[in-house]
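Note on ligand handling. Small-molecule inputs were canonicalized before submission; formal charges were left as drawn, and no protonation-state enumeration was performed. Where a ligand contained multiple stereocentres, the stereochemistry in the source SMILES was retained. For pyridoxal-5'-phosphate, this procedure yielded the string shown in the input block below.
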Amino acid sequence: MTGIYLDNAATTFPKPRQVGEALRDWLETGAGSPGRGNHALALRSGDAVHRVRRGLARFFGVRDANRLVFCCSGTDALNMALKGFLDEGDHVLISSMEHNSVLRPLRGLERDRRIRLEVVPCDSLGRLDPGDIVGRFNERTKLVVVSHASNVAGTVQPIGGIGTAVRERGAYLLVDAAQSAGVLPLDLGALDVDMVAFAGHKGLYGLQGTGCLIVGDRIRSLRPWREGGTGVDSLSETQPRAWPEAFESGTPNVPGILALGAGLAFIEEKGIDAIRGVEMERCSQLWEGLAGFENVEMYGPPPGEDRVGVLSLNIRGWEPGDVGDVLNSNHGIRVRTGLHCAPLAHRTLGTHPSGTVRLSPGYFSTPDDIRKTVLAIGMLARTLVAG
Ligand SMILES: Cc1ncc(COP(=O)(O)O)c(C=O)c1O
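Structure output:
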């Protein structure tokens, strides 16, 4: 049933053994609600959540762990950053490789005439030139949003250089690290980045429905976009101001957070470079194997350039969705096809509106999985269906 799973860009699978163990332990030995009561199980959950927060803060080079906010998803974290930070009249720049979870909230703010949005074009491999961002700055430019690694073509953006250029002009940089957190080193102590949003269920090996927003010291004020019970300051009828509670209204997703902690422990045990090395080996094996088929067109930078292991392709004469269906039904190979919630990125790559077939191997993909996938795609590439 599991088959060959090549959809790790959607969510990593399988999860490391430690993740299941952490969940079982939590269910069997006490599942109190953190910050809700002073009994032993509530306190135990609260301590466990704080340990994960501190661990993630250390991992990402964040000095004040309270500035790491647990969210419901990567999308939730991005909405929190965009809707909490932007003010009437702000000018916002985004790259043309952004996901709908950046584009849609911003288009909504633009529609309501709250902000002005400009899309900075990337080249046909999805690469953004920091000079092109700088050229679009005006006196109202407040925020630049860039995805660190593309969920369509794997392209990695030079966020260090972009951050420095943005900071020199007095603006702020928000990085969507959904595809890079846990995969690429991200040391916020060393980078000119002001906010980072990521999902917990991809490269960090947590569960779906988790994410984080990290808010740097330069961000002095952020409006909570969700308000309610926080477990602290209950006498007050208005939202508390303390970090992180101000932004974490509602009972936290304790199992999700503990799974994230176990995923992080796995990454620290293996080493982020070793994990990336395996993913890039699998990506190179795919690229080299498929490069031999003249009907297969691959997108994004080749292995060896700045990229992660997310590979998009098309087979001439085939619709991407049909390729995915045949791989799934006839070969047990699980891939994602279509627009990947990123129509802007597909316009940039020239694959709009039908999209691509996306293969995203992970740490647990084997060379044999890749060999079988190359064979299966090779068979389709020799079977042209279009007239
Ligand atoms: C680049 C990018 N940004 C944001 C997201 C949104 O993350 P989530 O699905 O956890 O909300 C994704 C998820 O696929 C993504 O790939």
